[in-house]
């Protein structure tokens, strides 16, 4: 590091694209000095040479590129470059908006200081004027222009007194009406040929759930059935604008906690950093047995204004990859969105005014024949503002800003529009489950902190390329090896059935249903969907006996012995359930070989103290009574610390006998579960906890889902003699 004063430093995401077109993100340590921006693999010490440096002067520009999708992950992207050296730039990103805005402000300030210094010394530099395509009222500070350089760069030096370095975007798409702006009569006249720009007049309709509900005043006495009246809800939320904005933009499971009208959402197409096409299913409670459910396909645009407020705008549109869905009525949004504005803090707590407007035609016979249908459903949608208020009022956690949530992509699962349409038609008969939404993206790509190969093979115009997820690349990244394990040779007494409605069976649980420590966990405590399992679950046994069943791997003909004969290695989890009748649920995870030096290999060959400190279980109850779900929870648990674990190391296997009855707490929960076990669907993921950057990200050993288990289906095993007992270490 140089001797210059450090202005700001910290971990950020290095964002770029390879020559083949795929994007990449790497965790890097960025350091901003008064005249220099640099980044390193690790926090620099002594005279460490940075990976890349960028000289800051008055000709530099700071571009806010908005939200980008990287294989399902949403990141907030910033780019700084020099106007005179067009291909010399650094592009960085953050998983939360607060951190991105801090870096944006610091870099802009450094650019302004260099401009002032050069002006004082009589040195001229190229400058430019910023103009917004919707430059009225408040100015937006986010760039919507996805080209690498704006046309304004070709201007002369006549505007050398401008200090702001942020590129201003071109405003929302033409079809989207920005209802948040107070437009004067001159602008109305200028745009009269495009759409009905006019000042809306409102009257207070009612107060509900602490919200003021307004209705649009119309100049006509009669409103045709094909037209809908705009309504908006206004409330105050004790949270920052950024926190509220991140929730409003979410389409994951978090939305269920504050939006009672939300059922499912998907990303259809990412147009640019500020505009996206979304598919959205509404959960309306107006006689659902009679009225067909509604869905939406709409364009969503957002921007951040100079005063710190956020604007999110909606308008329906058609898209080739999001056609009408059988069993749904396609509603139409004329205008809608959120206006999130900061207020003065009170008692040390942030306060934000949230306006939610919706002008929607729900279509169908209910709108034309039942006047209360549209009004009731619209109030339900607007009530999300009260949901936001209660969401934040019921928690004191403000220390860690949440990541920008992930959205499921409708088109990435198919290679063409036709295949995507078929997928939509086949999947519409049942609504996506909460697990599917939590999974978010089956092909989430992990960040590599220590590889700089991508930085040596970037395109010169990397930021000019559209950010798309290549289906072929995703398929290659997760392609199954040609020499897959033959699962047909393994057999357990509990059958496998992949049908969601099946009973007394098991199936594989999607690894993305579980969140594990990311590559950057040591720095930002972030977690990511787990992805693909390390081992294959080949069989499950369900045993019972009058005594506890230890070392079940010695049972003749079991999956362990079959795997050993084939030269395969097995990890066995024997979950022992105590009682008047003892039960054991046994899972067999198989792999061809353990990778030498890997965390899993060190776990298998380590001592019991190391194993107990690392063996982790992530439980979940997707289906069951509320009290059971609350008792079991979904918090990761270090099994070796919570209950007694006995490790039996054989020549080609490691068996882990987990005595659940050894813990009073676990035994109490188990007593609750056993009584209703036939009504439960239980997910379990096993993994070795990663504690250092070399071990991260975490990977699952395997995951399983057990559905509606019957106690009567357990069998009494015949265990071989313990005369030739393997090492218990």
Automatic annotation (TrEMBL):
Where it mainly occurs, coarsely classed, is endoplasmic reticulum
CDD domains (alphabetical): PH, START
Could you tell me which residue ranges the START domain spans? Answer: 202-364
Q: Which SUPFAM superfamilies match?
A: Bet v1-like (SSF55961), PH domain-like (SSF50729)
Name the residue ranges with Polar residues bias: 138-150, 159-169
Query: What Pfam families has UniProt attached to this entry?
Result: EDR2_C (PF07059), PH (PF00169), START (PF01852)
**Name of the protein this chain belongs to:** ENHANCED DISEASE RESISTANCE 2
């Amino acid at each position: 590091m140089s001797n210059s004063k450090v202005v700001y430093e910290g971990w950020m995401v290095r964002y770029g694209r390879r020559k083949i077109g795929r994007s990449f993100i790497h965790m890097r340590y960025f350091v901003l000095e008064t005249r220099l921006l640099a980044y390193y693999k690790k926090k620099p010490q002594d005279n460490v040479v940075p990976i890349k440096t960028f000289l800051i002067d008055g000709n530099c520009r700071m571009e806010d590129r908005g939200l980008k999708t990287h294989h399902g992950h949403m990141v907030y992207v910033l780019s700084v470059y020099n106007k005179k050296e067009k291909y010399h730039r650094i592009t960085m990103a953050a998983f939360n908006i607060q951190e991105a805005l801090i870096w944006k402000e610091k870099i802009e300030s450094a650019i302004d200081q260099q401009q002032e210094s050069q002006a004082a010394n009589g040195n001229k530099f190229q400058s430019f004027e910023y103009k917004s395509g919707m430059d009225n009222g408040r100015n937006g500070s986010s760039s919507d222009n996805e080209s690498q350089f704006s046309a304004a760069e070709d201007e002369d030096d006549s505007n050398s007194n401008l200090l702001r370095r942020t590129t201003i975007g071109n405003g929302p798409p033409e079809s989207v009406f920005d209802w948040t702006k107070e437009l004067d009569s001159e602008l109305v006249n200028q745009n009269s040929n495009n759409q009905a720009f006019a000042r809306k007049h409102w009257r207070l309709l009612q107060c509900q759930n602490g919200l003021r509900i307004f209705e649009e005043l119309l100049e006509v006495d009669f409103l045709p059935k094909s037209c809908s009246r705009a309504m908006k809800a206004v409330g105050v939320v004790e949270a920052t604008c950024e926190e509220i904005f991140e929730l409003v933009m979410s389409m994951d499971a978090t939305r269920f906690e504050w939006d009672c009208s939300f059922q499912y959402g998907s990303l259809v197409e990412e147009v640019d950093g500020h505009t996206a096409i979304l598919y959205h299913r509404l959960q309306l409670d107006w006689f659902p047995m009679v009225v067909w459910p509604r869905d939406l396909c709409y364009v969503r645009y957002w921007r951040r204004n100079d005063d710190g407020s956020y604007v999110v705008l909606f308008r329906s549109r058609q898209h080739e990859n999001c056609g009408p869905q059988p069993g749904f009525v396609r509603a139409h949004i004329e205008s809608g969105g959120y206006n999130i504005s900061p207020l003065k803090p009170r008692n040390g707590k942030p306060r934000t005014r949230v306006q939610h407007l919706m002008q929607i035609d729900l279509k169908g016979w209910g709108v034309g024949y039942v006047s209360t249908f549209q009004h009731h459903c619209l109030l339900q949608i607007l009530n999300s503002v009260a949901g936001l208020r209660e969401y934040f009022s019921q928690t004191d956690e403000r220390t860690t800003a949440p990541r920008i949530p992930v959205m499921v992509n409708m088109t990435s699962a198919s290679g063409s529009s036709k295949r995507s349409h078929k997928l939509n038609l086949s999947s519409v008969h049942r609504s996506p489950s909460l697990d599917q939404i939590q999974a978010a993206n089956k092909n989430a790509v992990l960040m590599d902190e220590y590889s700089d190969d991508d930085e040596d093979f970037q395109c010169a115009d990397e930021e000019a390329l559209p950010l798309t997820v290549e289906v072929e690349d995703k398929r290659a990244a997760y392609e199954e090896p040609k020499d897959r394990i033959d699962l047909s040779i393994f057999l357990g007494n509990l059958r496998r059935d992949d049908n969601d409605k099946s009973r007394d069976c098991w199936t594989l649980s999607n690894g993305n249903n579980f969140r594990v420590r990311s590559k950057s966990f040591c720095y930002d405590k972030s977690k990511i969907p787990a992805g693909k399992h390390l081992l294959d679950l080949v069989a499950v046994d369900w045993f019972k006996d009058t005594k506890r069943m230890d070392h079940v791997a010695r049972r003749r003909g079991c999956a362990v012995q079959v795997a050993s004969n084939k030269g395969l290695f097995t990890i066995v989890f024997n979950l022992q359930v105590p009682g008047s009748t003892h039960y054991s649920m046994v899972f067999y995870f198989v792999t061809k070989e353990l990778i030498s030096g890997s965390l899993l290999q060190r776990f298998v060959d380590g001592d019991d103290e190391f194993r107990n400190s690392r063996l982790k279980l992530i439980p979940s109850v997707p289906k069951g009574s509320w009290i059971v779900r609350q008792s079991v929870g979904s918090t990761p648990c270090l099994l070796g610390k919570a209950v007694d674990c006995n490790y039996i190391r054989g020549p080609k296997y490691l068996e882990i006998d987990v005595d659940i009855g050894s813990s009073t707490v676990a035994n109490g929960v188990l007593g609750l579960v056993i009584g209703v076990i036939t009504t439960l669907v239980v997910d379990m993921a096993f993994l070795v906890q990663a504690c250092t950057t070399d071990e991260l990200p975490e990977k699952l050993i395997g995951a399983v889902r057990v559905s509606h288990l019957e106690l009567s289906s357990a069998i009494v095993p015949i265990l071989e003699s313990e005369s030739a007992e393997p090492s218990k270490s």
